[in-house]
Amino acid sequence: MNTTVIGIVAGICTSVSLLPQLIKIIKEKKAQDISWGMLLTLISGLILWVIYGFLKKEYPVLFTNLFAVLINTLIIIFTFRYKRS
């Protein structure tokens, strides 16, 4: 198996790993048990991976982590939205 394919599959798996959490937050309109420490650490690491992928022109790294940043940003937005209600 090609190393690029392995990298893409790994990136997709890690990128969508919090998608079930996002769907649960949106579906239940509750986000009381979200760990801010974990979320902020994760999004910081993902942003650094995006920068790394951009600088090294490693597009699988760049795009899969950019997608993961999007998912985590949506989790933060919906957490704020549903913690207030």
If you had to describe this structure to a student in words, what would you say it looks like?
The protein is mainly α. It has a single domain, classed as Up-down Bundle (Monooxygenase), CATH 1.20.1280. It contains 4 helices and no strands. α1 runs parallel beside α4. The model has no long low-confidence stretch (mean pLDDT 89).
TL;DR?
With 85 residues, the chain is mainly alpha-helical. 82% of the residues lie in helices and 0% in strands.
Q: How helix-rich are the residues, as a percent range?
A: over 70%
Q: Name the poorly predicted regions.
A: none
Mean pLDDT figure: 89
Proportion of residues in β-strands: under 5%
**Strand segment tally:** 0
Protein traits:
single chain; about 80 residues; mainly alpha; Monooxygenase
Architecture blueprint of SSEs:
Blueprint: H1 3-15, H2 19-28, H3 36-56, H4 59-84
Helix pairs in contact: 1-4, 2-4, 3-4
